[in-house]
């Protein structure tokens, strides 16, 4: 089976492919039949255009790619890519995965609505997004959060992780300091760094009163995938204050590493970490409440059972890949 992956070019990675898409595709390519043959052969078409107008200009080159690769199925990631793939061909079935921003953002969702109608199958990464879209499981739709590479993201000793980051020039350990990883770069407005900063300031006030270590917020930028896994083992907790999310990969990756997590109730975070010890979801965006939860997470001072829960939720890339292949086969019938 030949599957063409259509997604937007990301300039923050060397090959332009978002890591969560690339790792999912790698898992698809690793799936084999009983005779050892590959189940799926894949290729990419990366969209370089910006906005709907920029995407529409790419239809001729996408059609050329379709003629050359001759896919049985097109799998598009994000609503705009799904709409473009459907406009480029009516002969080949399109599967579209919606990752959150394409449903949560009204100005983008208006295009996703067309992709939902035209696609042979729609995949949503969170229950909330599925509800917004008015989709029902089984009716041309599935709820499948993106999986993670649990062979890459795994627990290791904190000291070993910090020593490795020091060796790579990515970390400088300070005495009497607790490190909290922010879930992305500080400049991303959706991630709400000002709220995270206020939470850490309140936490530090309380830490001083108790005579404990100070807390330092770490920006998540400039790390390779391997370094990201090490970083999640080196920090004492992860803090998510995003305004919107789909099914954030960073939360699942932190779970696989056994890192304590504090998050506002966004995306599917509550579904993921509700049963994980040392992890807390705060229902409000009140800084004091989030700071109280962060104090608890830092006091946990150990590895959580997040990896075990992640396994129970069937969120390894290998299991997700198997489900995707089942969908491809179903729509080809």
In short:
By secondary structure, this protein is of the alpha/beta class.
How would you explain this protein's 3D organization?
With 333 residues, this protein is of the alpha/beta class. Helix content is 46%, strand content 16%. The protein folds into two domains: 163 residues, Rossmann fold (3-Layer(aba) Sandwich), CATH 3.40.50.2000; 155 residues, Rossmann fold, CATH 3.40.50. The protein is built from 15 helices and eleven strands. It is globular and about 65 Å long.
Tag the structure with descriptive keywords:
alpha/beta, 15 helices, six-stranded parallel sheet, 333 residues, 11 strands, Rossmann fold
Topology:
Layout: E1 2-8, H1 19-30, E2 41-47, H2 51-56, H3 59-69, E3 73-77, H4 79-88, E4 94-98, H5 101-104, H6 106-118, E5 121-124, H7 127-133, E6 141-143, H8 158-167, E7 177-182, H9 193-210, E8 214-218, H10 225-234, E9 237-240, H11 249-257, E10 261-264, H12 269-273, E11 280-282, H13 287-300, H14 306-312, H15 317-332
Parallel strand pairs: 1-2, 1-3, 3-4, 4-5, 5-6, 7-8, 7-9, 9-10, 10-11
Helix pairs in contact: 1-15, 3-4, 4-6, 8-10, 9-13, 11-14
């Amino acid at each position: 089976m030949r599957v063409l992956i259509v997604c937007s070019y990301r300039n923050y990675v060397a090959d332009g492919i978002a890591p969560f898409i690339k790792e999912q595709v790698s898992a698809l390519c690793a799936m084999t039949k009983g005779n050892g043959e590959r189940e799926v052969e894949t290729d990419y078409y990366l969209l370089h255009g910006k906005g709907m107008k920029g995407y529409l200009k790419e239809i001729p080159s996408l059609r050329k790619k379709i003629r050359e690769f001759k896919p049985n199925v097109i799998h598009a990631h994000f609503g705009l890519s799904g709409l473009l793939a459907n406009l480029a061909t009516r002969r080949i079935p399109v599967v579209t995965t919606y990752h959150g921003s394409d449903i949560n953002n009204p100005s983008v969702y208006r295009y996703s609505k067309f992709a939902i109608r035209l696609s042979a199958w729609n995949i949503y990464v969170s229950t909330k997004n599925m509800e917004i879209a008015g989709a029902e499981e089984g009716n041309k739709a599935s709820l499948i959060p993106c999986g993670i590479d649990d062979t890459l993201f795994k627990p290791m000793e904190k000291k070993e992780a910090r020593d490795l980051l020091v060796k790579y020039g990515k970390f400088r350990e300070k005495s009497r300091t607790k490190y909290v990883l922010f879930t992305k770069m500080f400049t991303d407005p959706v991630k709400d760094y000002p709220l995270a900063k206020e939470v850490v300031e309140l936490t530090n006030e309380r830490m001083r009163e108790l005579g404990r270590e100070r807390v330092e917020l770490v920006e998540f930028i400039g790390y390779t995938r391997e370094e990201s896994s090490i970083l999640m083992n080196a920090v004492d907790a992860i803090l998510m204050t995003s305004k919107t999310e789909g099914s954030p990969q960073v939360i699942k990756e932190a779970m696989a590493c056994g890192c304590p997590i504090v998050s506002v109730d966004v995306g599917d975070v509550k579904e993921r970490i509700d049963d994980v010890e040392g992890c807390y979801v705060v229902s409000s965006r009140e800084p004091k409440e989030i700071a109280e939860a962060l104090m608890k997470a830092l006091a946990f001072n150990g590895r959580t059972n997040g990896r075990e829960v992640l396994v129970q939720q069937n969120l390894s890339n290998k299991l997700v890949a198997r489900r995707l292949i089942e969908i491809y086969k179903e729509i080809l019938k």
